[in-house]
Specification:
mainly alpha, 57 residues
């Protein structure tokens, strides 16, 4: 269970970095992707599952 929490926190952190990078560079696509990644990590954390990996089947 701790591994799920760490993975979720890492995904949230990645999303935060992407969002900040998008804001800094003016790239709305990267910014939106970061917000989406953070939102998915929060949802996964509340449900207690690992977030989906982008592009993973």
């Amino acid at each position: 269970m701790a591994e799920d929490r760490n993975s979720t926190s890492a995904e949230h952190l990645k999303g935060s970095v992407k969002e900040a990078l998008g804001k800094l560079t003016g790239d709305i696509r990267v910014e939106a992707e970061g917000r989406r990644q953070k939102r998915e990590a929060r949802a996964a954390k509340s449900v207690g599952i690992q977030p989906a990996k982008p592009g993973g089947d």
